[in-house]
């Protein structure tokens, strides 16, 4: 209100009077605005109080027309009203302190105006009516946006475009809509396939790929409507999941296995994803695929003969597919497979076959015999598959009758057995048929056919199978025609212009044996194909009872069935790999898991794809086989010609060590490798003749058969040496080789022989060092060589006091006998010595034969002459040296003390030296210790 208008209003209401008759007048309501953090309230209309008791101009006393105060009712109100001009009635509303919009946005209270008052007797001033005041607090943008979550996460499926993956949200503590609302969001990360709108919704701008990137992390910020930015961005993580495909998840393609650690779980975190499909049952098969011949389920193992000894197989088995050699040349033309056991596996491509010599197997088998072989075979080629013959016994000439044969036809195994006419002429069982998946699965399997006519039993990998078809036939008429046994085809010798092979086999065979007269037990058959490595179930007792499981005999296939998915997952997690071999072959073993499921209702059931994994067997700690013993051996020639010869390796020792890494940190710096002695088996030891081969008519290497009794060992020898073979302990090999003896019929023609001994484990996978032995002969006509080797003491050693020597020789004559007398005496003495030596040699040879016969009766007894002591009589003639040598060999175990000379009192006793022979150096003569 302008001052002019204000004065007109006052004149209108004013009544000139000196008495306070009227109340002040104010507006009925006021509206005000105050900005937070300030103290002045802007009111609309302005705060003005009017009073009709107009004051007298220029009066010197207070008049009732003046306004003295504005009172606010409400103790909690943070405002106060002040009078700016009492005469004009102007006032102002102020805040007593700082006002915070975030605490309270609006205030409402009552205000009254008071005049100064003037009346008779000093009456009080009058109050105006009550007016309502409404005040709004204006906001200041003092807060920045803050996100509700510290981190946001979401998951999407690959290959889809989403309108909204997730929404981020920020808030602002400012009180006004302008400053408290979030007007914009922004992704600050560069080059991301995502976008965000004003409401915080995030979407992907392109299809995501699980293979390309499995997780994204982006940063998001926000602005309020006052353009204040959030102080801290928020992280948003988006996981990309593959398109849900039913199958096994959480498994590793490779599982490392360290030898000697026992059982190891293969899939500890694996589970079956069904994509929400309800399942009624599931069947899972875990298969360990070795992909090679199954002897021990390892690629490097013992020979077939060694395994047969280990498993206690019956003797008399004949190997029809031996390694090619001079004696077994019928396999020389066959193709052998590559690899370490190439001498064991033969591959037939439909063009190779072998004739078995007539002397190998009897032409007519008895009612009891066994045929066994390892076979790998695939489906036959062509629509009309021909017979593929493994083994066939047919007429050699004139006719083509098959007496017995084993062949494959259309993935069926057939065994034919035609018997000769006996007392009756009736139909008898002749063909036995088996239809098995193993015959054409291109994997190795062990087949054994036990014939107890008329019953024929087939074992495949240790499991018995009965024939699904048995056909009868007439017996074969007896004839004088010889038969021919062949492998890989059947011999067609008659009714054709040119005899030839027919019905060739296509596949691989190994260890094809036939045992006439005996059948093999199921225990031995299972042992021959048993695995040292396979599948296992860890903590079998904790397996849920609702899960049914089954192992094949080799424990290479495990089948599990169940109705509950979680129980099936738990069972699969317990599947383990175990390898009990001491030195397993390092390398990969393939695993395959196949699963089939049944669904409820008639809905299409899901398909679970097979998975392939690998068990990687790590390199084991390789053993170091060390053989030690004497490297030189010297014996009199009489020992070589004796019935038993000489023992070559009487002090042999075989040990094996592995290198371990020390676990102690302080020791690791100085000596990180620690040798540890271990015990394991050997499978052969060879004694090779170095230089010229043995003369078969004069010399040989021999070992008594009794030394092999009770052991899994056998021995063969030839002119080039001897081989002791079989899977047995190192101590057993020691005992046998210590009894290997070298014999020479004419030792006088021999000067020396050299031999080399080596031992091996796992068909040469681990080989020992070479122990070279040089054998020398002491001939009777070479006493000087013997004395030099033994370092014998002087023959005429006498020690006397000087006075005694003078007395002894004081009375001796210096006369020398004539030359003729000396010659005659020496000739007579030589003749006597020759006669005595001849008689003594005959006696000595007889005594040695008796002694060797007694030694042969005691198995494993070795000679020990380490305690031998030789006493030399200084008074004996030089010609008795050879006689002393023979007596030393005859009295090996006796200890003879030094002799004392029995002279007169003037002579001194002579302490003669002891000559000791140590056994650790091959019974060589050692240097004598001489004491006086």
From TrEMBL:
Entry-linked InterPro entries: Cadherin-like_dom, Cadherin-like_sf, CLSTN_C, ConA-like_dom_sf
Main localization (coarse): other
Comp. bias intervals (Basic and acidic residues): 914-932
Protein location: Cell projection, Dendrite; Endoplasmic reticulum membrane; Golgi apparatus membrane; Postsynaptic cell membrane
Gene from which the chain derives: LOC101075381
Residue span, Cadherin domain: 26-147, 148-248
Keyword annotations from UniProtKB, A to Z: Calcium, Cell adhesion, Cell membrane, Cell projection, Endoplasmic reticulum, Glycoprotein, Golgi apparatus, Membrane, Postsynaptic cell membrane, Repeat, Signal, Synapse, Transmembrane, Transmembrane helix
Feature: compositional bias, Acidic residues: 878-909
Membrane topology type: Single-pass type I membrane protein
GO molecular function, one term: calcium ion binding
PROSITE patterns: CADHERIN_2
Protein name in the entry: Calsyntenin-2
Family statement: Belongs to the calsyntenin family.
GO biological process: homophilic cell adhesion via plasma membrane adhesion molecules; positive regulation of synapse assembly; positive regulation of synaptic transmission
Cellular component aspect of the GO annotation: cell surface; dendrite; endoplasmic reticulum membrane; Golgi membrane; postsynaptic membrane
Transmembrane portions of the chain: 819-842
Region of interest (Disordered), residue spans: 856-932
């Amino acid at each position: 209100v302008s001052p002019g208008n204000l004065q007109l209003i006052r004149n209108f209401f004013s009544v000139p009077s000196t008495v306070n008759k009227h109340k002040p007048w104010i507006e009925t309501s006021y509206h005000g605005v105050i900005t937070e953090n300030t103290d002045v309230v802007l009111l609309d209309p302005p705060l003005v109080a009017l009073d009709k008791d107009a004051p007298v101009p220029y009066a010197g006393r207070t008049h009732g027309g003046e306004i003295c105060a504005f009172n606010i009712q409400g103790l909690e109100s943070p405002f106060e009203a002040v009078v700016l001009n009492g005469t004009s009635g102007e006032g102002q509303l102020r805040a007593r302190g700082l006002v915070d919009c975030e605490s309270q946005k609006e205030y409402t209270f009552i205000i009254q105006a008071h005049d100064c008052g003037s009346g008779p007797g000093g009456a009080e001033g009058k109050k105006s009516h009550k007016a309502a005041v409404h005040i709004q607090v204006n906001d200041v943008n003092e807060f920045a946006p803050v996100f509700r979550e510290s981190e946001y996460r979401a998951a999407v499926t690959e290959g889809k475009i989403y309108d909204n993956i997730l929404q981020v949200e920020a808030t602002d503590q400012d009180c006004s809509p302008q400053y408290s609302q979030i007007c914009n969001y922004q992704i600050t990360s560069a080059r991301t396939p995502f976008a965000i709108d004003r409401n915080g919704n995030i979407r992907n701008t392109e299809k995501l790929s699980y293979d390309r990137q499995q997780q994204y992390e982006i940063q998001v910020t926000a602005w309020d409507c006052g353009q204040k930015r959030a102080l801290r961005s928020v992280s948003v993580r988006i996981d990309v999941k593959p398109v849900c495909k039913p199958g096994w998840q959480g498994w590793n393609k490779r599982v490392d296995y360290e030898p000697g650690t026992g059982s190891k779980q293969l899939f500890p975190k694996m589970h079956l994803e069904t994509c929400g499909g309800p399942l009624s049952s599931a069947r899972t098969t875990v298969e360990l695929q070795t992909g090679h011949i199954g002897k021990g389920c390892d690629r490097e193992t013992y020979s077939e003969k060694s395994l047969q000894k280990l498993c206690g197989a019956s003797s008399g088995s004949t190997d029809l597919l031996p390694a090619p050699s001079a004696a077994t040349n019928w396999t020389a033309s066959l193709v052998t497979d590559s690899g370490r056991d190439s001498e064991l596996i033969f591959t037939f491509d439909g063009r190779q076959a072998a004739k078995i010599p007539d002397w190998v197997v009897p032409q007519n088998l008895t009612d009891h015999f066994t045929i066994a072989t390892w076979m790998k075979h695939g489906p036959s080629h062509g629509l009309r598959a021909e017979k593929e013959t493994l083994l066939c016994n047919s007429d050699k000439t004139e006719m083509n009758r098959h007496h017995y044969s084993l062949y494959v036809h259309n993935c069926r195994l057939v065994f034919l057995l035609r018997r000769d006419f006996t007392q009756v002429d009736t139909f008898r069982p002749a063909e036995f048929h088996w239809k098995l998946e193993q015959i054409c699965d291109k994997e190795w399997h062990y087949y054994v056919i036990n014939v107890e006519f008329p019953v024929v039993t087939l074992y495949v990998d240790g499991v018995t199978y009965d024939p699904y078809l048995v056909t009868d036939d007439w017996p074969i008429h007896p004839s004088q025609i010889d038969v021919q046994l062949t492998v890989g085809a059947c011999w067609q010798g008659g009714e054709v212009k040119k005899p030839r092979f027919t019905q060739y086999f296509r596949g691989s065979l190994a260890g094809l044996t036939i045992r006439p007269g005996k059948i093999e037990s199921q225990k031995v058959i299972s042992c021959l194909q048993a695995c040292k490595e396979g599948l296992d179930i860890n903590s079998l007792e904790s397996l849920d009872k609702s899960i049914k499981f089954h192992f094949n005999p080799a424990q290479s296939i495990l089948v599990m069935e169940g109705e509950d998915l979680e129980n099936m997952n738990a069972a699969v997690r317990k599947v383990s790999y175990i390898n009990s071999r001491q030195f397993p072959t390092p390398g990969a073993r393939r695993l395959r898991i196949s699963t089939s499921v049944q669904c409820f209702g008639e809905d299409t059931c899901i398909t679970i794809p097979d998975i392939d994994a690998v068990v990687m067997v790590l390199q084991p700690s390789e053993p170091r086989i060390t053989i030690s013993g004497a490297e030189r051996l010297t014996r009199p020639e009489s020992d070589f010609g004796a019935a038993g010869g000489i023992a070559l390796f009487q002090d042999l020792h075989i040990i094996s060590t592995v290198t371990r890494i020390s676990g102690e940190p302080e020791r690791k710096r100085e000596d990180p490798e620690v040798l540890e002695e271990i015990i394991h088996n050997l499978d052969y030891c060879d004694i090779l003749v170095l230089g010229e081969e043995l003369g078969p008519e004069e010399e040989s290497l021999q070992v008594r058969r009794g030394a092999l009794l009770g052991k899994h060992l056998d021995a063969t020898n030839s002119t080039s040496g001897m081989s002791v073979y079989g899977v047995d302990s190192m101590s057993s090999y020691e005992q046998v080789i210590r009894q290997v003896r070298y014999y020479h019929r004419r030792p006088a023609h021999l000067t020396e022989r050299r031999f080399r001994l080596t031992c091996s484990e796992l068909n040469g996978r681990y080989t020992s060092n070479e122990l070279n032995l040089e054998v020398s002969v002491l001939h009777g006509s070479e006493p000087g060589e013997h004395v030099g080797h033994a370092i014998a003491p002087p023959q005429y050693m006498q020690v006397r006091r000087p006075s005694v020597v003078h007395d002894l020789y004081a009375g001796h004559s210096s006369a020398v006998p004539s030359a003729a007398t000396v010659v005659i005496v020496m000739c007579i003495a030589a003749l006597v010595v020759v006669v005595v030596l001849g008689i003594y040699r005959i006696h000595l040879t007889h005594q040695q034969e008796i002694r060797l016969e007694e030694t042969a009766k005691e198995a494993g007894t070795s000679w020990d002459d380490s305690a031998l002591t030789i006493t030399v009589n200084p008074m004996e003639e030089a010609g008795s040296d050879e006689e002393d040598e023979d007596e030393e060999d005859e009295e090996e175990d006796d200890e003879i003390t030094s002799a004392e000379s029995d002279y007169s009192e003037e002579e001194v006793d002579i302490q003669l030296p002891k000559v000791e022979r140590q056994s650790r150096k091959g019974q060589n003569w050692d240097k004598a210790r001489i004491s006086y």
